[in-house]
């Protein structure tokens, strides 16, 4: 490589590193806001966050960035680059193109609109007042449609949105996998509804000491191999994980006095996200590739740990006695009954409270509606009717009001269309990865029953975590499992699990 | 004002606001590092901190800043500015001139040198190895002497350093006040040493529950009027206060199991710093004037609360029964004995462990040595000998090794010459302010005995806190007390206090 090109590459790496540093500062400021920042400091804090985000954005779209990318994306140079550099260059080019294409005044309008809209949504949800939110949502959809034109329409307009959260994902692919999934899950759900063998969950309705909940969460995280020298556990209203850098990946959980399962499963969930970020390879440190490769793959790791390991019989065969030690009120409850209770399936209205099976139906509904909004001319005013019809069709229930229906999620108020699909993709990726993992590690169940979770963490590190964003989601899933995303693994997993639990 | 000038003023305010936002982010990153950041994230965090500091520095010395300052400092414009704008302009001009005058390669060399030097100092202190630290210190003094030339020599070379921490302070002034102070404190100290009425402190050597220490600290902070909606209390190895913005002023303390007084007095001390920052007027929000006006005035507030209120008899007349409730092991100890114990005076080697009286002698020693280094040709190699001679002269004791002597403080390893004086200035300012406060509030002692500390906080807010950096230290002390810094108030205060305690 010529010396001048080498210098451009060096400068590009430094610029990316600088952007990454801004992301770390922004991440910490957000974490702090959600874990205990004094409330009177919030307005100034928000201003500081806005300033840092603007600076990071300016660097990503700067003349310097353009000049480095122009040099480094020329085919002759690109093919000489090492893998990590090439990936980072491609990633930055994609970001650059996307940001450059929208006029700044449109970006500004969007920022102002979504800020107002989130407040309007909170009120509207609280009062079940769709009409009060509808004007904001109409404007957001309109502006987002304009953005799609600027960004460039892929196969369909909605494809452009999907690609933002899951690179290379298309409507064609999602349509196919969701159709297949729906075809298998709706009948399964109906059989479960009809089953007489419903788990008893009454014993979960007790009071559980918060200090003991925290102790048990810490214990489980330690068992998973969460590195407390590279992270910490705090409390927040909504649990989350945030990777500031691979040596500082923090998680939060929420201890509910009347529900011991909430903290346990959110610790497993956020712990799964955290294992991913903690185990990214050192060679990616300081690059923009030192993060999860997509929302879907990230979610696959939280759900693999939360559901496929954490709600399994082998897991509780090993850990139930520890839980009982922390909570003597469960001492009379049999393992089998506990296991069945934490796996109860029930049609419900609220996505975030849904079980492992119906969760996917909640997502499919949202995906179909978003696609209608962006590809098929559905109007915002008709959203509640469409929403309720789909809940009736897929889950057999109808929300009594819009607050518990179409207004329940924050996503649309912030313009995050295309995001929901990632949640179910996560479930499908997880089941597909689990299938390979079981094949390659025949002692998988035995390891869990022995409380030996580290080999599982290591297998996942070797196959997934260490690559960070240096492989695309589809490269990754093919490399790990030998095939593209295949919804049958999730359907197989759920059918097997619930056939046994509900004695179908 | 012309429209163009008005625009320049607007842009200047925005630039200052942006610098302030960087300071907030930097402050939070530091706070986090000292209160629980995972250790594996520290190297990357340090890089992020370095990046943000560099960006803030660049803005302060940018071409934009120069252009705004050129417009706004022209006499015709300056006299039209409102007080806050004018102060901020003057402040930024001073920073700009100081930063611009030193060539960047010298700044870089200084940064690298002090980073290495702090590590070398830690080892040297640990091993009492002055020879191991001496080469670093020699280089730092040499570079600092060069900086003084760039910054411009005031009356003497050391004046330039003093001014950095306490604007407008001069060697001439400090020489005068320290000479006066020494003349009164050294004999007082000798009389105390000779007194047969030594307080008994044996009962302080017990174990004290940490949770109770935290509860008592929170209680005292609440009594002082510390606003927990605009701050929080955490634990760290070295207690500190940090004002991110007036709505977010955090403090830390350190709970020692075998010493209940450490946490109590550090909470009062940091609480005093915090009251200052929490009560800066809203009109200064988002400006670079929204902070304490100098190290000395800041320290006056921590020491006024810690010593003059917190170690007073009225204070414990009110709060001793609360302390006893938290710590039943003190239930047999009389108030009078407790009060005398926390006010024991003793010649000792370590500054940070010194009592209210001898502390000032530790500072005078350091001030005299720094002045010799920068104004009188003292060589670094001769520091230990000079140090030990002064400890012998003023405190009657000699360090058994350099780790407990000349190597005890971190300041010089970071190049912070000129800083030490602020500590004693704080004591003197505090006593002088207290004198006025007592005069203007005759019920001062009665308020304290009643546990009614809020009027005191309000008086200090009205006279000092609300002005932030919009008044210079000397403007402030003259406005509050009617005269320039006068060391007699501190000497009077200490003589009266110890005459009674030691029955001199």
Automatic annotation (TrEMBL), chains A, B:
Zn(2+) binds at residues 269, 273, 299. Broad specificity carboxypetidase that releases amino acids sequentially from the C-terminus, including neutral, aromatic, polar and basic residues. It comes from the Bacteria. SUPFAM superfamilies: Metalloproteases ('zincins'), catalytic domain. Gene3D superfamilies: 1.10.1370.30. It catalyses: Release of a C-terminal amino acid with broad specificity, except for -Pro. Its EC number is 3.4.17.19. Belongs to the peptidase M32 family. It holds the Pfam family Peptidase_M32. This is Metal-dependent carboxypeptidase. Binds 1 zinc ion per subunit. InterPro entries: Peptidase_M32_Taq. GO terms for biological process: proteolysis. Keywords: Carboxypeptidase, Hydrolase, Metal-binding, Metalloprotease, Protease, Zinc. Its cofactor is Zn(2+).
